[in-house]
Amino acid sequence: MDHAGELLPAGEGTPLTGAYEQHSGMRSVQNLESIINEGLRTALMEETPDQSLGVLLEHLGKALNGERTYIFEQNESGCDDNTYEWVADGVEPEKENLQNVPPEACASWYRNFSVGGHIVIEHLEDIRESEPLQYENLKRQGIHSLVVVPLYDGKQIIGFYGVDNPPVKSLEYASNMLQTAAYFIVSSLKRRNLFRALQKRSYLEGRQSLEDILEGARTGIWTIELEEGCPPRMYADRTMRILLGAPEDIGPEACYRHWFERIAPDYTEMVQETVQEMLRTGRAEVIYPWNHPELGKIYVRCGGVPDRTFQKPGSCLNGYHQDITETMVTRKKQEQSILELLERVRQANSAKSEFLSHMSHDLRTPINGILGMLAILEKSQDDPERQRDCRRKIRVSAEHLLSLVNDVLQVSRLENGWPAPAEKSFDLCAVLEDCITVLSPMAEERDVRLELETSGLRHSRVIGNPLQLKQILMSVIDNALKYNRPHGSVFVRAEETGFCERTASCRFVVEDTGIGIGEDFKKHIFEPFTQEHQDARTNYSGSGLGMSIVKKLVDQMKGTVEIDSRTGGGSVVRITLPIQVDQACEPLSGEPERDEPGDIAGMQVLLAEDNEINCEIVEFMLRDAGAEVVTAKDGKAAVDAFAASAPGAFDCILMDLMMPVMSGYEAARVIRGLDRADAGTVPIIALSANAFEEDVALAKGAGMNEHLAKPVDVRRMLLVMNRLRGRQGRSTHDSQTTEMLKTVEMKTV
Fold first, then answer.
1. Is the entire prediction scored with pTM above 0.85?
2. Helical spans, DSSP H, in 115-170
């Protein structure tokens, strides 16, 4: 309902009908009160003011037999909005068409309201001549009669409500009912406004809290309106404006341009496609670079959903804008790191694949030599000289094969981060001399002069790991000999370059006249499985692991290694290591004498070995050296053999570590725990292919005296056995003397 009608004057009834009308009026008032009370009771049972108003309009519409009841309220711009409506079955609603009705449309009604009047139209045709415009509008809505009453908040008119098309005979009744219920209508509207104000306040407070949270997460909220025929508009919250680097008072159209024009050109189409996806599927998200006016290139995650309540032609989106630059930068760094790692893994796998290919050649070469020499040996029974030559070549091939295996195991151990072995006191000059002594035969064979200079060392007795140092020096010297020329030279020099707080800075220089190293290969020289010239595998034997092992060991000892070289001009390797000086200069106990003979003639030996071939080899070597041997095939058999023997029957036990039934470790512990005089003194020597420092420590922890690695160095085995026999003799004598003293003391008592 949106147009004015006429005021009907209050007429006077005729004398003939007065009494009847008075009686009828009394009944109408009673009926009116009953209907209104029932409507108010029902409305008050609803939870919200909006529901109460809806129920009351329905109750009034049905009570008055009207087709439509409604409420109009004045909005902030002075126009009228149809805010509530009830329609009878079959009647078309008009609420959506009656929003923001201009003031002039209802001006005459408001003039009547201002003087306390209300609007009653009995027949629409009555205003056809006087109000032709309103006549047409009401006729279009199908209205032929109506009653409208004003709504007052105090003295201020805030709107009106009414009923369309009630029966003409009940217009006065309808007018009275509407005026009576108007107070409740106004009260409900005021309650509704208060309810909405509280909701808005709560919403604003919640929104402020949400904005603070989103600002901390660098996430802004936006609304984009894409109204047909108008420029796009973006409404941004405070955080969104901060993220955009936009001023507080920026307009919605300028805000949209500020955002859209700064999208990286290569991503504009992607963003537009994402907008279409939001409209099509109801949700979408996109990540794109955005050019911030102050920060430059940043990365943005943007997502949104369509606003289904948008009433204008076109579309509207609500969404978020998050600055994820730190995340993207971190992700890109991680991706780059992953790519670099993958490349390193690829290169390592390529190098290892190449290494396996080369090792197939390197391993097969000495194996082929061994098998070939054995075949020649079998066919040269009558040629002692040829047999001697074959045996020598078999030994050389076997030692080379062992060297290759040791290199591979050492690299694997270092790459897996095994801890550094324990340190002890040793003679630095003696280690250097040992390296020269071991490698001198190789130098003579290759016709290369090998010299050592140690005059620059001021401290000879040091604390450290002699095995690691020997590995480093022998690997470098071995390379210098291996890749040298006939009549060439290798010069080894050791010197102190500094001393501070009991630590000497020792530099070891190995200079050769060999084939040298090219500039391009220098950066790869410490990588495992690499060699500069693959043809070197034919002329110079090697696995490509030596310098990789050197670098890892030097790093473990907190030192440095430098290489100067050029192709065809030889090489100079400088290794600098911090080494603690042993100022106490105590001699190392337990070290074998250099010239101690390996005489084991007459010794009674218990040999525990599960491998028949290994057992046969060791037994032969022992018997050949003059020892008597008893064999056991596992640890338990060794324990039983020792327990069944008389005390002192065995001078030494050689114990394999990995055996069935009972391991060598357990067997050694059981023997040491036996209740007999020689259980704690009989020398037990471990023989094992487990040859790392931790294996030696485990053997010592099980009660063994020494650990010898397989393949067994026979000369060293004999030396160790002889040395330990001497100790056992002294220990047995001391034990017997102690027992005699105890016996004398007991007799004296």
1. no
2. 132-140
